[in-house]
């Protein structure tokens, strides 16, 4: 075991235990919103950089997240939470693992090169306090199919279509919509409109010295644009008076010698996430198809994103 991994492990496990009893960050249920859009792994500085390109972003504030991984965010956001008035439309594979029953696969610890990336059975008490999928007003795990061909599930428009369809179908009091981008893999459109798998595991390449920070961060920004372009379409196809745009966590590109978003990591690039307020109005009224559910285990979905 190398020194970096040992030092981080000595910090991480006590930090995870402490977070069971001490809330760090702002729970999104403490904020005022009707529709909440989650951009996975979105840094505050990144969205500030592209904000002038989008009319629906007037200003970018920030809050401190309750976690530095999606799993932490879901655990600390939803534990002991009444979600009977909340519709959840999520492209994040952790929803299947945390809110649905998979008795053959409960807890795991993964490694990402030299950094432990997730949480083991230490979070079992928190997981037992989570709502089940049937406790939500409605629950739509979006798997998609186009993204699967490129190693990412799902693409932004697949989440947008599912969210538009569900919003019109059930007219929820509150809706949470979780996009996987700008989380890696980085996917962008070529000039002919086709999707290109640009970087399957760019942060591994950056850590190994096989890619520059400028190159990887530029691809990350393009991945963020893909998500925001789709969010723009969402906002023209639903009615919602108060829409908040935020992230579950940010991303590291070498800060404190860290990459991606290790568990319980305190760096502001991971824990300080954007908070944007806008609104939505169904002026486009596009027709969308119901989301097509593809059988995929939580293991397969998380593996696509580099966790396994």
In short:
The chain is 32% helix and 19% strand.
Q: Rg to the nearest angstrom?
A: 18 Å
CATH class: Alpha Beta
Shape: globular
Order of helices and strands: HEHEHEHEEHEHEEEHHEEEHEH
Low-confidence stretches: 103-119, 147-151, 190-198
Find the count of extended strands (DSSP E, 2+ residues): 13
Integer count of domains: 1
Beta fraction:
15-25%
CATH fold call: Alkaline Phosphatase, subunit A
From the coordinates shown, what is the CATH architecture? 3-Layer(aba) Sandwich
Report the biggest beta sheet as strand number plus sense, adding barrel if it closes. Answer: 7 strands, mixed
Compute the average pLDDT: 82
Question: CA-to-CA gap between the ends?
Answer: 19 Å
Per DSSP, the total helix count is: 10
Helix content: 25-40%
Structural class estimated from helices and strands: alpha/beta
Read across the widest sheet, the strand sequence of neighbours is: 2-13-10-1-7-3-6
